[in-house]
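QA checklist item 7 of 12: single-chain prediction sanity check.
[x] sequence parsed
[x] length recorded as 225
[x] structure emitted
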Amino acid sequence: MPNEIVGWLFLLICAAVPAGLTTYVVLRFQRWQKCKPDRIGGLIATIPDFEPVLRFDQADKYASLAMDPDTNQFAVILVSGSYRVFHFSQLVAVEIERDGTKLELTNRGSQLMGAAVGGALLGPVGLLLGGLSGSKRHEQTVKNIALKIFTNDLHEPVIRVTFFNHLAGCKPNTPEVRMAVATLEQWYGRFRTILAAQSEPFQPQPYTDEPRAPGRGRGLLSSGA
């Protein structure tokens, strides 16, 4: 009997130690994420003629989306030190994506395509619940929610900004998903407003096989140094 008790205690310890270690590592990482310097903020400050009043940071702090309405520009900034700056006129389309599947897309001229019911857009949670199956609603877990931005840069026309990412997935009604969708909707609305104001057809930037020279450059990946 004592041997059995010792055996059970040993198993409990073996199970508890990895779990405790994992929790410790996660908490330390979260604390580090909160305390580390705002490197992207420093990079934004180095971008000429760009003073954004709107900014979204990915949860992993890898990238940020910023907008300066006064100069009609938006930018995507990477923590690695690179950034891409676009004028509003370079925007071609914007799309909401869930788990790799397109839910809704708006292109130049305010043409709306995607999950809609009776001509009206679904609400934040409704979009997530019904967007993948049309009129048939069924709840699934949400692993990734992103905003895809299409520009007239022929080198790299698509930008993807992640608003929610969870490996195991969460139910659409959870606070984390609701908050992410609410934030995404605000940014989607801003880009839709920009697209609605663009009546003329877009002109793609000329493509060349020549290597791009270092430096800023509108709409091109540039060094923040």
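[x] summary fact logged: The chain has one domain: 39-206+213-223.
[ ] second reviewer sign-off
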